[in-house]
Structure formats: C-alpha cells, structure tokens
Amino acid sequence: MSTQSVLAAAQEAKPNYKTRDEIPTQYKWNLDDMYKTKAEWEADVKKTEELAKDFTKHQGKLGNSVAELKQALEDYSVLSRYFEKAYIYANLGFDANSSNPDLQTMADRTEAMLAVVNEKTAWLTPEITEIPDAKLKELLASPELATFKYMVEDTVRTKQHTLSKDKEELLAQVAPINDAPGTIYNMLAKDIKFPKIKDESGKEVQLTRANFISYMESTDRNVRKAAFDAYYGAMGGFQDTLASTLASHVKTHNINAKTHNYKSAVEAALTPNNIPVSVYEQLVGTVNDNLDLLHRYMDLKKRMLKVDELHMYDIYTTLVENNHGYISYEQAQKMVLDGLQPMGKEYTDVLQTAFKDRWVDVYSTDDKRSGAYQWGAYDSHPYLLMNYQGTLDDVNTLAHELGHAMHSYYSGKNQHYINSNYPTFTAEVASTLNEALMFQNMYQNAKNTQEKMYLLNSYLENFRATLFRQTQFAEFEKLIHEKEAAGESLNATNLKKWYLDINKKYYGETMISDEGIAMEWARIPHFYRNFYVYQYATSFAASAALAKQVLDEGQPAVDRIRTKFLSQGNAKAPIEILKDAGVDMSTSKPVEQAMDLFKDTLDELEALIAQAEKEKPTPHKPHGIGVKINGKDQHFDTAPQNVNGTVIVPMRAIFELLGATIKWDDATQTVTATKGNTTVTLKVGATTATVNGTSVTLAQPAQITNGRALVPTRFVGEALGAKVEWDAANNTVVITH
Ligand SMILES: [Zn+2]
After folding, report:
1. I need a surface site. Which of 194, 241, 592, 624 has the fewest CB within 10 A?
2. Where in the chain is the domain with CATH 1.20.140.70?
3. What is the pLDDT at residue 553?
4. Active-site residue numbers?
5. What are residue 663's phi and psi, to 5 degrees?
6. What residue ranges of the chain are covered by domains with CATH 3.30.457.10?
7. Ligand 1 center to residue 444 CA distance, Å?
8. Sheet of strand 383-385, all strands in order from the earlier edge strand to the far edge
9. What is the mean pLDDT of residues 135-163?
C-alpha cells in the first residue's frame, strides 16, 4: 500500500445524508450477518426465555459435583449467548435508526427478556460464593473445570469481604440510596443555566454544557476567557450544593469500604477488578515525579501562543494550524490499514474483512445515536458505530474502535464464552495501541515541518489530556476519599482549595491557575464513578509501551500481543495478561517509559520550532505585499499596495530595479522609461499606457500616494520583458528577468 501524506488528503465533497435510506449500502453495517429475518430473531428471544426458566433446575446443586458445576456453567453460557445475540441485534438496529417504531418495539422487547434472564439467574453468583472453600478447591482441581476456573475464582475473590446473609440483604435494601448523589448531580448539572457570551463575530450566543469546550478551543482569546469565566461563575453559584452531592457520594464509598472490611475506598473499588492498589499508587507517584515535563510543555505552549501570561482558558486552543480538509471514508480506511501495518498481515487482513463485510456503520443521520462505539455478540462479528465527519479525529476514532473490534474478534475466536469478555483495564489498551501506531505512521509520512509540528502537538495534547489529566483526577479522587475518611469536611471551600492546589502542582508556575478552575471538579461527571479514571492513564501508558515494542521488535512482539493479550479475553487477571504481552503494570516502568516518550516528543517539537523559525524568510510587514526580483525580497520606502487586485509599487524604484532609465514630467505627471529598444510611457490617472507607441489598457492606473507615483507592477515588468507571477500563499509578486 502506498504511503501518502496524511494531511494532504484528497479533497472530496463531504456527503450529507438526511435519512438512512439515502445512504449507499456499503456505508451501513450488515445486521443480516446476525439474523436474516425477524422471525429468526423472534425464535431466539423465545429460546432465551425458555433456557432462562429451565436454568433454575441447577439451583441448589452447584456444589454437588464437578459434573453438576460444569453443566450449570455450560448451560449458563449457552443461555447468555442466545440472550446476548438477540439483545445486541435489536439494540444495534435501534441505535442506527431510533425513529423506526418496529426497531423501538424490538429494543423494548429485549428489556423484557433481560428481566426474565436476570430473575432466573440471580441465584448463581451467591450460590457459587456459598460453596465451602475446601469443597470449591477440590472441585476446581479437576481438569474438567479448567475453562471455568478463573471465572469461579473471580466470583469468590471478594468472599472474605462478604458479610453475613442478613447483613448483605439489609445493605442491598438501602443500596439504591448510594446512587442518589450521582443522580442529583446529573439533574443539577442539567438544570444549571449558563449566561450568554459573545462569540468570535461579536454575536451573543448561549453557553451550554455541550458547547463549552468548543468555545474553549476558540483561537479568539476573548471568547475563551468569556466562556471560562461564565461557565465556572455559574457553577460557583451552586458550589455548596455541588460540594454536598460529591461529599455524599464519597461517603457512600467510605461506608461501603468500612463495612466490608477494606482498608480504603480505593481498595474496595479495585479488588473486585483484581487490580492491586499499588498500580494506582505507582501511577500517581510516577506522574508526580515527572511533572517537570508537563511544566516544560506549558512553557512551550506559552511561547507558541505568544502570550504574556498563560491561563487555564488557553489550554484547549490549537497551537499549530492544520488545513487537511475533508478526508473521505475510503481515504480513512487506507490510512488505518497503512498505520496498522506494523501489526502484521494477519491483523490487517481482518481489518480488510471488517471494511469489506460492512462491520462499520459510517455516516450520521438525525435519528442515529451520537458518538462512536464497538459492540457485538460472541456469535457475531464485531460492529462499529461511527458518526464519520471526515476529520483526522474521526480517522483516529475509527482506528480506536477497530482496536476494540480486534480484541473482541480474537478473544471470541480463542476463548470459551465465559472468558471472552474483557475488562476496562485491558480494553482501552487494545484501542489506544492502534492510536499510538497511527500517530507513528502519520508522523513518518508527514510531508513538511508544519504537518510534523501539527502531529507532534496533537500527540502531546493526547498525553496531557490522558496521562497527566486523568492521573490528576485520580489523585484528587483518592485525596477526597482519604480526607472524608479522616473526618474532614468536604465543603466547597475545602474542595476548591484541594483542587486548586493539585492543579497548581500539575501545571506549574508558568500557568496562571485562575480562580475559576478551583470549581473544575464540579464539571467532571467521572467523579461520580468509583475510582474509574485512572484506567485511562494506565491504558495509555501500557499501549505506548506496546506500540514501541511492535515498532522495535516487529513480528515477535506482534505475535505476543495477539496471542497473549488480544486473544485472552478475561481468562486471567488483567495485570497478568498485560505482563504476558510485554508490559508489567505492577511496576512503575511503563509509566516511566511513557514519560520518556513524552519528553522525546517535546524535544522533537521544540527542535522543529527552532528550525522553522530559522527557515522563516524575512517577515513581511503585517498585511504587507512582497515583491521579489530574481529571488530577492525588495524593500520600498512606500509600501506596495493591492488596489482592486493589482499590485502597485513606487515607480522610480521598480523601473530602476528592472534596469530602465526614467524621465519624469511633473507638469503632465507622465513618466517615460527606456530599456534597450523598449520605451514605456505612463500618465498618472490614465487607464491606458503605451509600449513602443502602442496603446495598452491598464488593469489599474498609476496613482500618487504620499507624494510618490505608484505604478502597476505586472504591466511594468511584462512591458520590460520580465516574467511576472503572483505567489498568493506569500502575498508576493515574483519577477524574473
Ligand atoms: Zn475505547
């Protein structure tokens, strides 16, 4: 496949489809691969419900024998496969076309099916947990149960933290209250009305939660500042309520940790996912050790933005222009296949199949679900929902979702159903690995310094937003849980102070930590998850390390990643799976390596900027028009002007530069210039001139400006036998003679 400059993608018209029917078939996913007819789907829904009812026959018998336990888990797998396929099919259809009433009915029908399945299988987990330890150990020693061993161990791993049945039942009854702080936060966040601000054209616009970031990305600093002040000002008006909801949420975690005999809320959150707390602590520690790199990046940002002070509202705006235009979906496919070529032929062959067999639903319509995702059943190929708009971000999203798809594809192919799903901790490694490889490929093929600078800068931004920022969140999340556990009040004053302190530490002295940012915790819905965001940072570090191994080692690394990681689903602990693939997240090494990569990228961008500054030609005056003669920039005491598309320059200077001698008649305001056999006459204000006695119509008459006569450059140059060209990109007349 030809490697081509990424940002110079062919300009093609951006399609605009109103309805799904207008979209050509090749851009819509093929759900027929799951069910050819609705009757087939209905048969599976029925079958699922029958199997769910039948499944209760295993109740009370799990601990009896290896055969009993095995049969129950096999039956559970079969039931789940029927359920999953029917459920996902209906919901994929609905997500792509939510205004279709048939699809709505089908999606609703799956919710009823889900309720039956939940009800009939709810006994399974508690019953596994109740099998006495010794008995379970004896059962799991059987090779017959090898496939189910990790799943069963995973189920009972938190057993020592399980309370007596009556206590757990009591807690289960009050459990819905635990969700209340998050629910109230979401409602409040929806209800808060933001003020209007002025956009780039001075027009009054309504600031919303949805458009806040796009105004923060504005290249107009006044707009960014207005959005920042308005947003956090409005949030600040509700600071006590917002602090109470977050404090209550944190309290539920601490109560849960304490009642279940965990040392901390973070331990209670990580243990069920089989992630050691040391992974979390190492991440925060290692990032803290390298904050000087983030500070250096902020210095660079300040220099590139050419601002006296760098503020928190300057952080989202682009530093390097990028004019790649619309990238067609076909072009995106080529870029992805090109970029992921280091993953080997076997991998890219599957990607080709994904494109050819329509795994992807490409374009947006009004009734399609927004965003992008990868989803699929064990008994189907993966499906990708996109809302493709032809930006470079969209190309990266395609590569990202295909990373999930390949993870699903290989795990589904190589694992029993029970082990085919994968947890978040490894999921985002598979997807961001593709993004890292895409970046390297685009960078290698960038055709000029500008393109390289653009790519390096977006990579650094990716680092900042993922590795640094998510770790900053993780650090704050851990801190507020510890403060609450120690009896300190999580009131607005304290939350703001703690948040601002961490923010200052992360961004360093170059950054003016504006007061408003102290309220940022109130903008982040992820603080209502339970120690979740750190996984974005660990995944980013892990995939950066794996991408480097792929590029350095080649095929052995590719094979290792495919067989030990992408094909493993959740057959083992996530930390073990990644360790087998080549990255040991129980040590600080991967995060340290990612920091080295960040440093190298920073060095590279700084060097390119220095080089670009050296290469830059003599800067033109603002809005100035340049004149170049035989490759040399000319300077005039009266600046050239563009009058109705014609560049006019001082008469004496231009004639003399082109080797002519002139005679000026002040009374008639007429110039006569001679060079060799050529004589040119020009009168100020006249629309015609003569060349060797022949009249020539001028695009623009000569005129007097600041006491000097200015004449049309092209006419003069061509009349004297020179070649005259217009370099629009540099706003310069180029004369060769
Ligand atoms: Zn993802």
Report:
1. 624
2. 34-162
3. 96
4. 401
5. -125, 130
6. 626-736
7. 25
8. 360-361, 383-385, 373-375
9. 94
Q: What SS3 class is residue 710?
A: strand
Locus of tokens 């977006």: 458
Q: How far is the CA of 457 from the centre of ligand 1 (A)?
A: 22
pTM (predicted TM-score): 0.79
pLDDT value of position 9: 43
Sheet holding 688-691, edge to edge: 661-665, 670-675, 678-683, 688-691, 694-697
In this predicted structure, the answer to whether residue 636 has a pLDDT above a threshold of 80 is no
Task: Give 400 Cα–ligand 1 centroid separation in angstroms.
Answer: 6
pLDDT at 706 > cutoff 80: no
DSSP string spanning 231-278? HHHHHHTTHHHHHHHHHHHHHHHHHHHHHTT-SSHHHHHHGGGT--HH
Classify domain 34-162 by CATH number. 1.20.140.70
Which of 60, 57, 52, 54 minimizes the C-alpha distance to 127?
60
For residue 288, the CA-to-ligand 1 centroid distance in Å is: 26
> 395: which 2 tokens?
């190309």
Give dist(CA 734, CA 372) in Å, integer: 49
Question: Do the beta carbons of residue 701 and residue 685 sit within 8 Å?
Answer: yes
For domain 626-736, the CATH superfamily is Copper amine oxidase-like, N-terminal domain (3.30.457.10)
Å from CA of 70 to ligand 1 middle: 33
Residues 504, 512: Cα–Cα separation, whole Å: 8
Q: φ and ψ at 568, to 5 degrees? A: -95, -15
Ligand 1 ion: residues within 5 Å (CB): 431
How far apart are the CA of 546 and the centre of ligand 1, in A?
16
Region of poorest pLDDT, from 412-416, 568-572, 630-634: 630-634
Tokens found for residue 523: 């903008």
d(CA 713, ligand 1 centre) in Å: 58
